[in-house]
Amino acid sequence: MLTKKSFAIARWEIKEKIRRRSFIVFTLLFPALIIILSLLPIFLSTTKTAQETFVIGVITEREGFVKTISNISRLDFIRNEKTQIIFVHLRIDTSATDKKDFAVNEILSGRLTGVIIMADSNTEVPRFVHNPAISTNDILLIQKFVADAKLVLDRYIHSNQYDELTVSMMAEPVQSKSIEDSLSQFYYSFSLVVLLAFLTLYTGGTFVRSFLLEKSNGMIEIYLSTCSATELMSGKLIGIVTIGLIQIFVWIAFAIIFSSNLFIQPFTHSFILQLVFFILGYILLSSIFLVAGSLVTSEYQAQQVTSILSMLAVLPILLAVHVMQSPNSIISMLLAFFPITLSPIQILRLGGEWSNLLQTYILLLIQVLSIYLIIFWGSKIFRAGTLLAAGNKSIKAIIKLR
Question: What is the pTM of this model?
Fold first, then answer.
């Protein structure tokens, strides 16, 4: 299928497309759009606002102590109006280890921002298990509230039940995937799917229109007089994929130069798999655009073809949140095994908590086989589409010439 003529056509396609002003503008301006769409939500989600609300659980048998802390924090918020800290009394009958496990689960689930495990005697040290998003100043403020509550109880309540209460806490951030890391991973995967859709629509749409122009000015007959339809299709496909990869490398360079906050650690297993699915998905969608472009004979048909394929490319974007939250749902599984949406859906699933290596490699095999079948059968349709006259585009005629 690949011959010297195929690579000659590919070189010609690359030279012609790269020289166009639209290619230069799209290649240079699109990274700015992607960076804005990707980084702005992360900055908005991690930027500390003027007023924040933290919900802190307190594990202790002394309910009066928690009420005192709550009153002190409420008065501080009314006076400063900066950080509102809500203290909730938690009474659980477990060991010290179980208490910390309970606290970590509550923080990771998002129900609590932090948990204070109070010491009931001088032999224990209170611990403050918290989300890493809490700043050092807020941790010091919470420690101050605890110390002030102990002082108030000692001074105004004449009881010995708080005498042995220790308030010097040890802060322990939750050493696991934070909320910001999850958001960064989501926006990275989402941006990769958006990039795949835009890249495919731009290069595919451009090809459909240029192919229509070649038909109208007679260039397609010149091509077919020197090479076969299969060589023409393979050459154009290599040209389209190469142009897309050039744009991707340019955009990655922009991201590395202008972004100081990379979304993930590079060269991880999930990252490499996402890139593989990205490239395979781009090749598959480009092949479909290539075959569909050979059948159009008017600008109206070109718009119809581009619109239909655009809907399939945009569908994973609309379902991104659902796929990452429920990677094994019926919708996610159906779209994952459908060749056209396989790559973007799998990129989203790999960006979440989903992990199934066996299924991943099966999907890789399905995608590769789909590309082979699209190119094999598409070359026959491509040959029929390029040879048929403008007014003879019936399915029967295409099957006959195939």
Answer: 0.60
